[in-house]
UniProtKB/TrEMBL annotation:
Residues 24-59 form the Zinc finger C3HC4 RING-type domain. GO terms for molecular function: zinc ion binding. Coiled coil: none annotated. This is Zinc finger C3HC4 RING-type domain-containing protein. Keywords: Metal-binding, Zinc, Zinc-finger. It holds the Pfam family zf-C3HC4. The lineage of its organism: Eukaryota, Viridiplantae, Chlorophyta, core chlorophytes, Chlorophyceae. The keyword Zinc applies.
Length: 163
């Protein structure tokens, strides 16, 4: 399992004295009155997060592309932005949530991609993983035959290779 840098020990039970002095930069809850808000992660820049807020950030990221890669922008004179270790997602999310997170991250980082031309599908197709030369491909979402060269559905494709 991944051991992220800057991670404070996570424990069950009351917050430690060190954690009691710290506050999550997202919720600002007092861990003395809200034990669930005890800081469990510290970013390399020194900003602290409670378990719940970091989970919420990773859960929101697949539907909010501005969060991928997950970046915290802190408007202080200490730090402007700090990348959050993506390995934390694996620790915090349920397996199904983590799969969705990873798939969305792959989609956003992929330079050569297309989406199924079927409006009801629109599934992401990673062209970097397909054999070259590009050509006919069955969509993994709906099974439609698509031309990965011109990114249209077959047989409506206008590429010379299919004429």
């Amino acid at each position: 399992m991944h051991d992220p840098k800057g991670k404070l020990p996570m424990g069950k039970g009351p917050p430690s004295a060190e954690q009691q002095e710290r506050r999550c930069v997202a919720c600002l809850e007092d861990p003395l009155h809200h034990p669930d808000a005890a800081v469990t992660f510290q970013l390399p820049c020194g900003h602290d997060f409670c378990n719940g807020c970091l989970k919420a950030l990773f859960r929101s990221a697949p539907s909010d592309t501005s969060l991928l890669p997950v970046i915290l922008t802190v408007t202080t004179n200490v730090c402007w932005s700090s990348h959050i270790d993506q390995g934390l997602a694996e620790l915090l999310l349920r397996p199904q949530e983590y799969e969705v997170f990873q798939a969305r991250l792959e989609e956003l980082e992929c330079a050569d991609k297309m989406y199924c031309p079927e409006a009801a599908c629109s599934k992401f197709i990673n062209l970097e993983k397909l054999p070259r030369p590009l050509g006919r491909h069955a969509c993994g979402g709906c099974g439609a035959d698509v031309c990965t060269a011109c990114k249209a559905r077959l047989p409506a494709c206008s590429c010379m290779m299919w004429r």
